[in-house]
């Protein structure tokens, strides 16, 4: 089946834009292929504060409305110098220079996580796959070393910013993009800085945006400068509380329109299970930023139609093997589906999934549920991919729900994908599998 992946005729992006897994701290960039990419952190479900955050995913779009999960690019297990217990993969960023993508991420190097933060760097020749860790930027530390952000300026010089605990620092990166030229400097002129630094440039003016310290309800503020490392002039608040205890955002221009990427807790209602959103960002004539209006509609299509056409192979649930309390049923509309996944030990297993040469595969699991927030536990070839959200389709016979995630498959046709229950009753009708370029 050749299905052009227009996501169910969406007229706008809707917010949040990613529903199947929890994503936070979005860093958005428009790269040379004309697409916009979001590098997000991943709130693992269930959460334990921010301790278990891990497994960075990248999302891409050619039009701001249809978003493709490009899959996982790095997990704590891939980081040889990292904290032995894993987790703590917090807000990342990505930069592109001289043909290489540099993925920067904060991660502790020891069990005493709060005293051992480092900024790791993984590199790839591709924007959303193939990243290999290169170690951490040497010589940094001494305070909350989190939330790195990198600006590559028009003259190809690159600057790194980071900070938490009320202190923001910036400095120039060497040409290798892996080390700092000279010393990091405290960024002067910011008011009430908390964390989440993001720097972008517009019409020759540098903007540094950040989260403030408003108790339990951080807002986003910003400052401007005519130099990349300040001093900065404080300009005000441009994002009011989202309802989530943390706030973290990035700003990018796509096809002449500016956007704010941020997170809220709309799906989960929990501050550590967050979801990425997009809304329009407007400038006044004098370069100041208007308060961003947070919407449920999100943004309208911009730019080209999605160019990527995936060939989806359909695997009917009717052909699954099942265990525990799971069984195959047929309803009055002649939908055939697996039910009973919610009872302990129940599962359905899609076998002989074709991975061809092996590599990334987009999974679309079609389901129906009446529950507001049911979950499916996904296992691919025995590896745990944790909980996927199954959002209400209003009725148990409306199989319009689609859980979407990209996972790696082995070469050949011996891949096995297992779904078991989390909370809530979810009926699974089929799974579509589309192979992505690796
Ligand atoms: O996501 C973990 C931390 O929460 C980030 O590093 C902060 O910016 C806040 O969003």
TrEMBL record:
Recorded superkingdom: Bacteria
Annotated positions for site Important for catalytic activity, responsible for pKa modulation of the active site Glu and correct orientation of both the proton donor and substrate: 147
Any one Gene Ontology molecular-function term assigned to this protein's record: hydrolase activity, hydrolyzing O-glycosyl compounds
GO terms of biological process kind: xylan catabolic process
Catalytic residues (UniProt): 45 (proton acceptor), 195 (proton donor)
InterPro entries per UniProt: Glyco_hydro_43, Glyco_hydro_beta-prop_sf, Glycosyl_Hydrlase_43_Enz
Keywords: Carbohydrate metabolism, Glycosidase, Hydrolase, Polysaccharide degradation, Xylan degradation
PANTHER family the UniProt entry points to: ENDO-1,4-BETA-XYLANASE, PUTATIVE (AFU_ORTHOLOGUE AFUA_2G04480)-RELATED
UniProt similarity note: Belongs to the glycosyl hydrolase 43 family.
Protein name as it appears in the record: Beta-xylosidase
